[in-house]
């Protein structure tokens, strides 16, 4: 199944003239990881879309704590959905995701690949 399954839904990725739009390298990588996991039959686009719709709804929900909400970002929602899908399938534990994220975050600038 292709990414086109997400078109016409709240989960559709940003496009410009029909091409996917990524403003940061990590966004393209997160997209690619999800696509590879779908291609590898670890989950379907339908299953991923459910997580993505939930992440988008959560991001759009006003914060009641009085502090400013983070700006809405589609690919942050994508990443949250990917983490949930991977965790749900037991492909990687939450601790392993946190450890890998911390390791990547601690690398010097320019070494983000």
Secondary structure elements and pairings:
Elements: E1 15-16, E2 19-20, H1 25-39, H2 45-60, H3 74-88, H4 94-105
Antiparallel strand pairs: 1-2
Helix pairs in contact: 1-3, 2-3
Summarize the structure.
With 113 residues, this protein is mainly α.
Tally of alpha and pi helices: 4
Low-pLDDT runs: none
**Measured on Cα atoms, how large is the radius of gyration?**
15 Å
Largest sheet, spatial ordering of strands? 1-2
Strand content: under 5%
Q: Which descriptors would you attach to this protein?
A:
single chain; 113 residues; mainly alpha; two-stranded antiparallel ribbon; 4 helices; 2 strands
Describe the structure.
With 113 residues, the chain is mainly α. The two termini are 27 Å apart. The protein has a two-stranded antiparallel sheet with strand order 1-2. The protein has helices spanning 25-39, 45-60, 74-88, 94-105, and strands at residues 15-16, 19-20. It is globular and about 35 Å long. The mean pLDDT is 81. Strand 1 and strand 2 form a beta hairpin. The protein has one domain. The protein contains four helices and two strands; from the N terminus they run ββαααα.
């Amino acid at each position: 199944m292709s990414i086109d399954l997400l078109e016409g839904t709240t989960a559709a990725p940003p496009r410009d003239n029909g091409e996917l739009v990524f403003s940061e390298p990590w966004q393209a990588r997160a997209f690619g990881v999800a696509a590879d996991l779908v291609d590898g039959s670890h989950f379907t686009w339908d299953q991923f879309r459910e997580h993505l719709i939930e992440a988008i709804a959560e991001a759009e929900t006003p914060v009641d704590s009085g502090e400013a909400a983070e700006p809405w970002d589609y690919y942050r929602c994508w990443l949250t959905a990917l983490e949930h899908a991977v965790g749900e399938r037991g492909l990687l534990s939450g601790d392993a995701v946190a450890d890998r994220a911390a390791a990547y975050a601690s690398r010097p600038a320019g070494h983000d690949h």
